[in-house]
Design a protein that fits this description.
mainly alpha; D-Maltodextrin-Binding Protein, domain 2; 2 domains; 4-stranded mixed β-sheet; 18 helices; 6 strands
Length: 437
């Protein structure tokens, strides 16, 4: 074991003392969370050019209301309260008469005006919107724009139009709006956790459920496991391939066995991943404590996170080193890297449905499948939902057994392929080396 640790230490020192490791340590979280960082930096960079919206109102009931709503917004809601600078665009509402005989042609002409940039969008209000039950087919409210689904104007139109619809329906029913002042009061559904009982038997009311704790924390833990896998395990494939093709491995195997060489590589990659984890987790905890967000730190999940990370890196390291011994050149290594990433990629693909329903059959089964168990189980544990206590232990036993199988099979492949030069990369060869050694 002394030789194994010496080799692991050599791999570790060779990795962490390079400038690439330091740069990667800084840049990797930036690259992985680049969209969120960009959104935070550019949140105030809003296009404040005037927005012209044409309205086709077949009811004839919304002209005054929409123009007044736009004027109120343009006067009171588009300026920064601190320095009075404009931070939102001006909305201009233009009403045109509906050509009932050729409405489609009229809408086509308006679409061309949008494409030419003459107007921003147009709104088509159906003739029976006020009383949809009379003619459901014409009770529509269609917003037409080049990017209508992501347009803020569509969201802004929702409240004034729906409030006005309520007033119109009250008038038609002969009801005075002043008699029911609470009609337009919105009641929001507040997300709260479960009540708890303290040591003295007192019932403690539940606080509001926090979206950061419910969503951001599990996703951050998943992303961190993915990043550590990329830093600690993935480089082993190309590193072993290079040492094989440059015949460095022939010199090393003169003093240690192939299994010791493979184990040293895995332990070196694991040490690199744990060093990076210590930096990220330690820095994250220090930052959260400094900012007063200590309640968001999942101290109860961190031990499981570290255990699952170690098992994941060990499993992936055995897989990468064995595949690296099979590769003859960079092209072979590249073709092998994609399927080797499945244990990392599949959990990333399914993390949203798992996070939404941690107790579903799908989430439970996926968290108990050994290649995916470390990441998916960590995601379930980090969610606000309490999962059965036996699930993480069952997942850990399964992934440990699977890791031992991967190490055993990888060692047989590694021992047979590491000194072979020019052998074609075939699945049949890999299976023969794994079964027959």
């Amino acid at each position: 074991m002394y030789k194994v640790f010496r080799l692991a230490l050599r791999e570790y020192v060779a990795a962490v003392k390079t400038k690439g490791f330091i740069i990667g340590l800084v840049m990797l979280p930036i690259l992985m969370s680049g969209s969120m960082i960009a959104m935070a930096l550019l949140k105030d960079q809003v296009d404040i050019r005037e927005r012209n919206i044409v309205v086709l109102d077949e009811t004839g009931e919304f002209k005054d209301m929409l123009q007044e709503a736009a004027e109120y917004r343009n006067s009171n809601q588009i300026f920064d309260p601190e320095d009075s600078s404009q931070v939102q665009p001006v909305y201009r509402i233009e009403f045109v008469d509906v050509d009932t005989a050729a409405t489609i042609i009229q809408m086509g002409a308006l679409s061309d005006r949008v494409r030419r940039g003459e107007i921003h969008a147009f709104l088509h209000i159906g003739s029976s919107l006020v009383h949809p039950s009379e003619d459901p087919e014409n009770a529509y409210l269609n917003y037409h724009a080049e990017s209508a689904a992501l347009d803020d104007i569509r969201d802004w139109l929702r409240d004034p139009i729906n409030n006005h619809l309520r007033r119109l329906r009250l008038e038609d029913a002969g009801i005075d709006e002043s008699q029911i002042p609470d009609l337009f009061h919105w009641s929001w559904v507040t997300a709260k956790g479960l009540l708890t009982v303290d040591e003295k038997g007192n019932i403690i009311d539940a606080g509001a459920s926090n979206e950061i704790r419910a969503i951001i924390v599990p996703l951050v833990m998943m992303m961190l496991m993915f990043m550590m896998s990329m830093m600690g395990a993935m480089p082993q494939l190309s590193a072993v391939m290079e040492e094989k093709t440059q015949r460095i491995v022939e010199v090393i195997l003169g003093s240690i066995t192939p299994f010791q060489f493979m184990l040293g590589k895995i332990l070196g990659g694991l040490a690199v991943a744990l060093t990076s984890t210590l930096v990220y987790v330690g820095g994250g905890i220090a930052f959260m404590q400094h900012r007063g967000f200590e309640s968001y730190i999942p101290y109860d999940i961190l031990p499981w996170f570290v255990i699952n990370l170690i098992v994941l890196i060990f499993m992936l390291g055995a897989l990468m080193t064995s595949l690296g011994s099979v590769a003859n050149d960079a092209k072979d290594a590249q073709s092998l890297s994609f399927p080797a990433m499945f244990p990392m990629m599949i959990p990333m693909f399914i993390m949203i449905p798992v996070l939404k329903e941690p107790l579903s059959t799908f989430a439970t089964v996926m968290s108990l499948i050994p290649p995916f168990s470390p990441m998916v189980m960590t995601l379930r544990l980090a969610s606000p939902v309490t999962i059965p206590h036996w699930h993480p232990w069952a997942g850990l036993v399964g992934v440990v057994l699977f890791t031992l199988l991967v190490v055993w099979a990888g060692a047989r492949i590694f021992r047979a392929a590491i000194l072979m030069q020019g052998v074609p990369l075939k699945f049949s060869n890999i299976m023969r080396w794994m079964t027959k050694g």
